[in-house]
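Submission sheet (multi-component)
Chains listed below:
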Amino acid sequence: MDASFDLSDDLILAHRLADAAGRAILPHFRTPDLFADNKEASGFDPVTVADRAAEDAMRALLAEARPDDGIRGEEYDCVAGRSGRHWVLDPIDGTRGFLSGTPTWGVLVAMNRGDAPVLGVIDQPYIGERFWGAEGQALCRGPHGERAIRTRAPRPLGEAILFTTFPEVGSERDRAGFEAVARGVRLVRYGMDCYAYALLAAGQIDLVIEAGLAAYDVQAPIAVIEAAGGIVTDWRGGPAHQGGQVLAAANSDIHAAALARLSSFAD
Amino acid sequence: MDASFDLSDDLILAHRLADAAGRAILPHFRTPDLFADNKEASGFDPVTVADRAAEDAMRALLAEARPDDGIRGEEYDCVAGRSGRHWVLDPIDGTRGFLSGTPTWGVLVAMNRGDAPVLGVIDQPYIGERFWGAEGQALCRGPHGERAIRTRAPRPLGEAILFTTFPEVGSERDRAGFEAVARGVRLVRYGMDCYAYALLAAGQIDLVIEAGLAAYDVQAPIAVIEAAGGIVTDWRGGPAHQGGQVLAAANSDIHAAALARLSSFAD
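Outcome: structure written.
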């Protein structure tokens, strides 16, 4: 492999990006009367000052450290790059959670070489907790130390814990697909934003199902979950790194069980 | 006031109780294959080893420090007491969140003198975050320091943020009541367990609506929210300290707006 693609350097940089984003965001978390744009005339998709400040901070670091790398972020235009490396940034995944004060939003940083991400970081700076993965190794560092993480071993669908952020999931069809799986599991929980992917990577839950995602919502979770032993696909079982309908699973058995119920609702 | 009812001593003891509970619980959080009883044949209401260990630890402290105080806990029989003070303990509020690894469960400690609680603590020991209140003063201590907290100022229902833990809320009628309010607000979020009450006390959100609660689920939140300037009642506007259908609101205006939609669904 070309030394210029050494993933350990990329991982160090990914941590620096997440650090910079967290520093930019935290002064704005849980402050009263946070400025919130309304990106969409219908619906509620606020963009905060914090969101932009964090992406600015990450782009400034990349411009200095990796002027030839591509960038795809939530807030600003893409940078095509010419190194073959692409950074995919979501400064605050879960802006509605952020505005509500829940510690479930996160900074998402991923790197890919044109398709699937090979490295990802999910960071929750209020708790001081970070989950990251690359090359088959995933770790978590939090208030109680650092440890390697692995996804859960297979169990029957009837014993599984399933997460999604909103009960409506996406379109009516998306919701019907979600509910086809939800009816078969032991416990369904809501409201965790990207933190649900971290819990899946950390071996706490079995399934996360979402719809209507963007690439920057899912690339870091894909990298962390795959490095921890899990599987992330779309609802047909194909690649999910462009977003859309996403099924994240702790292992191939529970992935197959969920996919059997979801696939007829795939776009 | 009788010096034996000095609330500052009670508050010091409440902190010690929450500390003891957190120490008992944390070694069991996010461990694989946590033992979980199933208290109810239908449904999913696990009791963990941690739950019992924490209530044991709190009861041991009370037996030593306050042998004459009453105790009402989730896991064991009531102690009637004869001092007029009653401690109301929920070692892990949000056991399903606990089993899923979410940092939304909490240790709840309240004290009352026979009816409404006068002092409460909501503690999230994984994050290291505590919210408490008594005598019109509420505070929060967390990863980023300690500060006084106040509930939000009035805003129209259409600008409000509403939380409940599960979309089904309780019975079909409970759900219908919840949805009557949910239709009128800006944002509805789920899945926060007792942490939602803490967010309300801290001025982050406007409303929490739940149903089917026990006294130990709600007495600490009532004390913290009221000390922070908010209001907690049942769905008729009466006392909520015995549990059941609960409406927690940041101020009297938003409380009235929500109650107008909820009251026809009151038990």
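Remark: Chain A has seven helices and 14 strands.
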